[in-house]
Amino acid sequence: MLGAFMGPVDASIVNTVLPNITSYFKTDISIAQWVPTVYLLTVSCLILLYGRLGDMVGYKRIFLTGLAAFIVASILCGSSQSIWMLIVFRGLQGLAAGLLMSVGYAIIVAAFPPFERGRAMGIYAVSIAAGLGLGPTFGGLIAQYLSWHYVFFINVPIGIAALIWGARVIPRSTPKPGQRLDVAGALTALIFLSSLLLYANQGETWGWASPRSLALVGIAVVFGALFFWIERTSAQPMLNLALFNNRRFSLASISTLLSFVALYAIVFLTPFYLTFVLHFSILKVGLALIASPLATMFVAPVSGAMSDRFGTRVFAVSGMCIAAVGLFLMSGLNASDDVWDVVWRLAIIGVGLGMFQSPNNSEIMGSVPPWHLGIASGIIAAMRNVGMVLGIAISGAVLYNLAPVTASTHPGSFTPQEIQEFLNGLHWAFITGAAIAAIAALTSLLAADRKNQQAKAEGPLPSSPEVTPPG
Fold first, then answer.
1. CA-to-CA distance for 363 and 249, rounded, in angstroms?
2. Do residue 212 and residue 349 come from a single domain?
3. Which domain holds residue 448?
4. CA proximity to 320, closest of 312, 309, 311
5. Domain final residue, candidates 209, 237, 265
6. What pTM does this model have?
7. Given a cut of 80, is residue 168 above it in pLDDT?
8. pLDDT tens for each residue of 100-133
């Protein structure tokens, strides 16, 4: 949980202090924006490879290697002497974070029996929710009382504690003989994901139909097709596509993706509303945003434990329905609201996500055979990070098309007419997020098995000749 806490913290904390970093290095916002962007891209692009490596060489080795690399990269980031040094080191930090995030669920599932899996997932989910929630708050505190360097230096003591503790308590798994790494699959997946995510991240800035954007789409299509062809024909594929023949696995994975697309409409857009319309300070923005993950932290362990007894369906579906209602309520915010009008709506979304995430993750991990736990864990992490990127892209596209002034106007300089234009864009962006959350509720309904089926499901796929133990 300590290791899992650090990745989401660094995904959310830097946005809060980005203005400070921009001023410190006297650079353009367009260049400084690559500090959070390169992290998100490098985290996402190699997660599937890391999950496969975990299945091959052991989850503990991958996790502890990631922790050690993350500590070193954090020191390098905090010591950067130029914006370009920071961007490079931030990319290295993302590569290390991917190691941490790829095998966490596999470690949890390997350590607990099936009847405790949901409860363990719920407790583990607290660390991810805390990381996403406390990131903006830590960023606000650091921006107000310290320098931006401490955004990265704060990882060092946490990482050292996790490294020492993890070396003592995480069980060492035995490397499986006869394993080979699918190098061609890993390379094509890297090019496919990086092209797709870079297009989603930069399409609004470059223009969705600009020549370089269309070039990225073309590269993503070609290498995506090549990746799936390689995986279908490889004797030991990096991503065993037969896993997606299982309805539980494929639909629950889609639910994870959609849930984070919907969530990041809130994470990305709410600070704009709090800053531009309500004129909150950075610290107050961070404190307000903690409402959603705080609710998730309380609900997730309970939801996970209850799903062990009653099955995942009711909790996953109800959770996303509640989140959809919360997103719809967010669309009603206006210029006369105060902090509590925002907080109680965010808390509803947090309750819904807390109900959904643990049972849904348990559904995914319970639907694969034991020898594929690492890649399944990597797929959860990949879906989460791709969902974050797509959530920012989709919600930003809706907002900027309806309120284009938002992209170029400084906080505090909106006219009354521009505020109404912004609120209209925000309204439809949140409604779009609510619709995506509702679709996630539907895919969860179709994915989840009932309790008596889940209790038997240590691994329903071994009967398939395509998913027999490798080697």
1. 7
2. no
3. 2-171+238-459
4. 312
5. 237
6. 0.76
7. yes
8. 888 887 888 778 887 787 778 777 877 777 777 7
